[in-house]
């Protein structure tokens, strides 16, 4: 599908034990190897080896603490549709580079539709959001939608 | 049809103040100092870091760091830990956003819709927004066949859907789950 490298990579084949391991690690990223081995019914050594393979193959990218946004300094989520003034490579590269460099922008997707990019931004307040938008180059038009309820939140 | 790992994550339906929910009641939550923020940043980047390495990184004793992490977990700042998986490697590399407009003639349409979304594993995220449309859904699919299943059947079978607009993602420029701190 995408021109993106991540979308171009082939899926790896996973057996039932791999799948179960990933499931456990998705729910408890700090689970000990001993406990993980118990949960998937394998030896510690076999579990450890599988884990290394899953990391080596790029299936597991890392581990993260899940932080409650409500309790942080960025409780406001805003979705933005962006149209660029031009669609040439230099404009889109400059836009993407700027989006990458702003930590408040947690997601940026190039979409196929009547606008070019969809952004997801987490900010403490609207003043910060204005600052984020102002820092992005080549915007012809933007429409912002404040999220008033995260009905379902999930990682990627 | 649902695919493995499209649906894994925190169990749903989420409680009202579950992970990443917007503070609608204005509760600022517990006070966090500069060191707490640093600990959170490190744990977001490496959730399996040892207590000792974490202590060294923030120049505190292992015991002091342990107590801080314990406190933030107890206070609901840290909700848990998860592995970050690569969707492309799992065969669900195609990301699709769907804007949904609901038919608001029925009173309970929002609640019914929310409940249906929470029990539908193919839908990864759902945000109620102000203005323009009602909900933005995020879904991941493996291919065009599954795209048709999810967008054509699953989403249209949700209660109260009047209109949908679908956007296929051509490039995931940035896709982070970390909260900027």
Would you write up a description of this structure?
- The complex is a heterodimer of chains A (156) and B (181).
- Chain A has 156 residues and is an alpha+beta fold.
- Chain A has six helices and five strands, in the order ααααββαββαβ.
- A four-stranded antiparallel β-sheet of chain A has the order 3-4-2-5.
- Chain A is elongated.
- The N terminus of chain A is likely disordered.
- Chain B is 29% helix and 25% strand.
- Chain B starts with 33 loop residues before the first helix and ends in a 6-residue tail after the last strand.
- At the A-B interface, helix 1, helix 2, strand 1, strand 2 and helix 5 of A face helix 1, strand 1, strand 2, helix 4 and strand 3 of B.
Instruction: Give the low-confidence spans of chain A.
Output: 1-7
Which structural category fits the helices and strands of chain A?
A: alpha+beta
Shape of chain B: elongated
Main beta sheet strand tally, sense and closure of chain A: 4 strands, antiparallel
Say how many strands of chain A there are.
Answer: 5
How many β strands of chain B by DSSP?
5
* Biggest β-sheet: strands ordered side by side in the sheet of chain B: 3-4-2-5
Number of helical elements of chain B? 5
**Global mean pLDDT of chain B:** 83
Helix share bin of chain B: 25-40%
Distance between the termini of chain A: 17 Å
The averaged pLDDT of chain A comes out at 89
List keywords for this structure.
heterodimer; A: 156 residues; alpha+beta; elongated; disordered N terminus; B: 181 residues; four-stranded antiparallel sheet; 5 helices
């Amino acid at each position: 599908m995408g021109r993106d490298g991540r979308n171009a990579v082939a899926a790896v084949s996973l057996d039932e034990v791999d799948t179960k391991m990933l499931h456990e690690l998705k729910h408890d990223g700090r689970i000990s190897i001993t406990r993980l081995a118990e949960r998937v019914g394998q030896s510690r050594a076999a579990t450890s080896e599988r884990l290394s393979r899953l990391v080596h193959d790029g299936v597991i990218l890392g581990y993260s603490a899940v932080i409650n946004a409500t309790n942080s300094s960025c409780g406001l989520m805003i979705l933005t549709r962006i149209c660029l003034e031009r669609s040439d490579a230099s404009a889109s590269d400059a836009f993407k580079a700027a989006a990458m460099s702003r930590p408040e922008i947690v997601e940026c997707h190039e979409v196929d539709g009547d606008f070019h990019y969809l952004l997801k931004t987490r900010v403490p307040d609207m003043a910060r959001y204005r600052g984020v938008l102002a820092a992005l180059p080549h915007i012809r038009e933007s429409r912002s939608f404040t999220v008033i309820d995260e009905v379902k939140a999930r990682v990627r | 049809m649902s695919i493995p790992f499209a649906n894994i994550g925190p169990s749903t339906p989420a409680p009202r103040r579950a992970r990443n929910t917007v503070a609608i009641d204005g509760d600022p939550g517990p006070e966090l100092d500069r060191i707490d923020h640093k600990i959170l940043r490190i744990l977001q980047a490496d959730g399996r870091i040892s207590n000792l390495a974490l202590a060294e990184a923030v120049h505190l004793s292992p015991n002091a760091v342990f107590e801080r992490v314990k406190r933030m977990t107890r206070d609901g700042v840290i909700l848990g830990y998860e592995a970050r998986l690569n969707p492309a490697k799992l065969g669900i590399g195609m990301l699709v956003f769907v804007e949904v407009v609901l038919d608001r003639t029925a009173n309970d349409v929002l609640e019914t819709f929310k409940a249906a979304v929470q029990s539908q594993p193919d839908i990864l995220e759902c945000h109620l927004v102000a203005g323009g449309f009602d909900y933005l859904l995020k879904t991941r699919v493996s291919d065009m066949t599954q795209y048709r299943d999810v967008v054509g059947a699953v989403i249209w079978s949700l209660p109260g859907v009047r209109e949908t607009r679908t956007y296929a993602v051509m490039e995931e420029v940035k896709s982070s789950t970390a909260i900027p701190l």
